[in-house]
Design a protein that fits this description.
It contains eight helices and two strands; from the N terminus they run αααααβαβαα. With 167 residues, the chain is mostly helical. The chain has a two-stranded antiparallel ribbon with strand order 1-2. The longest helix is centred in the N-terminal third of the chain and has 24 residues. The N and C termini lie far apart (65 Å).
């Protein structure tokens, strides 16, 4: 292959990657669909399979605190709920040490029959009021707990980032 054609192909590939990153950051999901088509021509273009494209647009998150926070942040962004990774992590470590099954059976809420639960120690009425659609309706579900707690903190304090003690 001539050097000029190799250079042209490299530029096309870099351009495709940049476009994919921009589309992914914009949250369009079109990045996955655009990649196989950019630079392809005629018979060499591979047809896109609908089920694969649907699966590929869903980000994979690890099943640990890091993944739960990142997934919550993605959902929060879709719903306009402010917060940062560091703000969430700081509060999770203070409230539950990262244990999604944590429950407080000794404070005033527990004495009233509504113990604080989960990563960010949310009581059931608060969870119900601030539950975010698209998450499981389960206060022990890590993503649901984080997202509902951040929604509450945004309403009450402006952001989970502004919470530095029990809330």
């Amino acid at each position: 292959m001539p050097a000029s054609r190799q250079h042209s192909r490299a530029l096309t590939t870099r351009t495709a990657r940049r476009l994919a990153r921009k589309l992914a950051v914009a949250g369009t999901g079109a990045a996955v669909l655009a990649l196989p088509l950019v630079g392809a021509s005629g018979a060499s273009a591979a047809p896109a399979a609908a089920p694969a494209a649907t699966t590929a647009t869903t980000a994979a998150y690890t099943n640990n605190l890091d993944g739960w926070i990142r997934q919550s942040l993605a959902i929060m962004a879709q719903h306009g709920i402010p917060g940062t990774y560091n703000g969430i992590h700081r509060n999770v470590m203070r409230e539950s040490s990262g244990n999604p099954w944590a429950i407080n059976n000794w404070d005033s809420n527990a004495a009233k029959g509504t113990p604080s639960k989960g990563l960010l120690q949310v009581i059931d009425p608060t969870f119900a009021a601030y539950h975010v659609p698209g998450t499981a309706y389960d206060p022990y579900n890590p993503v649901s707990n984080i997202t509902a707690a951040c929604n509450y903190a945004a309403d009450r304090y402006g952001s989970i980032d502004n919470v530095f003690g029990a809330y």
